[in-house]
Amino acid sequence: MTGLTGAYVPGRSPLHRLGAGVKLLALALSCTALVLLSSPVALGGAAAVVVLLYAVSGVGWAAGWAQVRPVRWFAVALFAVQALSAGPPVAVTSTLRMVLAVALAGLVTLTTRTAAMMACLERCLAPARFVGLDPFRLSLLLSLTVRSVPVVSGLATRVREAQRARGVEWSMRAFAVPLLISVLRHADTLGEALRTRGLDD
Amino acid sequence: MTHDEQVPSRPQESGDHQPRRRLATGDLARISVFAALIAVLGLPGGISVLGNTVPITLQTFGVMLAGAVLGARRGALAVAVLLVLVAAGLPLLAGGRGGLGVFTGPSAGFLIGWLPGAAVVGWIAGSGGRTPGFARLLVACLAGGIGVIYLLGVPVQAALTGLPLVKAGALSSVFLPGDLAKAVLASVVASGVFRAYPAAGGEQPVAAKGRR
C-alpha cells in the first residue's frame, strides 16, 4: 500500500491531450444530456458515441470494463425492477443511462493524470479560502492525506497484531479504540512537527 | 514576534464553536489523518469482521467517527478531502474504487451525503457538554451517519435511475442492518476514545502556547 496510483492509462489520443477542466465540464454537460434523453433510440445513439469515444481514447476495453464493473449488479437489479414495474423500454433507458454516465466519468479518469486532475480540482476549490483554506493549505492537506494512508494502514496492522496477541481477535472494540487513539496521537505529533517547521502562518 | 501580532485572534484557539478564518495547523494534521483513516477502513484485508468470511466496508463507520471525534467542521472537511482525492482518481473507496465514476454512479448521493452526515454527527455530538456520552453519540451517529446519508442517497439514486422513491428506498434498505450496527459500534468506540484520550475532543491547550 505504498504506491497509491490512479487508474490513468497513458496515451496520446485527443482525449488525453484535452485539459482536465475541459473534460470535467464536458462530463457535467453530457451527464445532464443523458438525463434529458428519454427514448431508447436516443440512448442507443449515446451508447454508440460512448463506445466511439473509448475507441478513440485507446485505453483498451479491459480498462473501460474495470470502470463499469462496480455497478454491474446494481445494473442487473435496476433492469429487473424496472422491467417488472415500468416495462422493458423504461428498463433499457434507465439502465443504459446509469451505465453510460459511469462509463463516461470513468473515461475522464482513465485519460487524465491524477496530478492534473488534482491540480484542476484545487483550482476549482479556490473559494475554500473563505472557510480558512488558502490554496497552499489545501494542497498541503491533500498531499498529507495521500502520505497518511500508508501510515494509518501500518497502524491498523500493528493494532491487529496486538489484538491477536491479546486473544481478542473478534472484538471490533478492541480493534477500533486503540486504532483511533494511535491515529489521534499520530495526528497530534504530525501537527506538532508541522508547527515546529513554521507552518503556522 | 511583536506584541501586536500576538494579541488578536489567539484567545479563541480552543473551541470549534466559533468560525475561525484560518485552520490551525493541528487541525490540518487531524483532518488529513482522519481522511486517511476513512480510506484505510475501506481497504481489503485492512479490517475484516469474523476473520475474512464477511467482508464489510467500514467507511461509513469512519465517517461517523470523523464527525464524532473531530467535530462538525473538521469532520466534514476530512470527508471532503477524501472525496476530492477520490474524484482525482485515487482508489480510496472500499474495494479499490475511485475516479469520477463513483460520482455519476447510483450511490453518488450516499457518497455526497457523507459530508453533511459527518457534520451533523459532529454537531449533535458537540452540542451538549464537553464530552458527549454514549447516548448522545448514538443519537448523533443514527441521525447524521444514517439519517442524513440516506436522506440524500435515496432520492439521488431514485433520480439517477428513474426508480420510484419507494423502490430505491427498498433497494437501499439492504444496507440498513449493517449501518445500524456500525452506528452502535461508532458510538461505543467514540466514547471509549474520549475516555482514553481526553485530548481527543479538541486542540490541546499546549497548542495555543507552543506556537513558534
Automatic annotation (TrEMBL), chain A:
Main subcellular location of this protein, as a coarse class: membrane
Keyword Transmembrane helix: yes
TM spans (from-to): 20-37, 43-66
Membrane topology type: Multi-pass membrane protein
InterPro entries attached to this UniProt entry: ABC/ECF_trnsptr_transmembrane
GO cellular component, as recorded: plasma membrane
Keywords on record: Membrane, Transmembrane, Transmembrane helix
Location in the cell: Membrane
PANTHER family membership: PROTEIN ABCI12, CHLOROPLASTIC (PTHR33514)
Protein name as catalogued: Energy-coupling factor transporter transmembrane protein EcfT
Source taxonomy: Bacteria, Bacillati, Actinomycetota, Actinomycetes, Streptosporangiales
TrEMBL record, chain B:
Membrane topology: Multi-pass membrane protein
GO cellular component: plasma membrane
InterPro entries listed in its UniProt record: BioY
Predominant place of localization: membrane
Keyword entries, A-Z: Cell membrane, Membrane, Transmembrane, Transmembrane helix, Transport
Localization (cell): Cell membrane
Composition skew (Basic and acidic residues), residue ranges: 1-18
Transmembrane segments: 28-47, 53-70, 77-95, 107-125, 137-160
Name listed for the protein in its UniProt record: Biotin transporter
Source organism (scientific name): Nonomuraea rhodomycinica
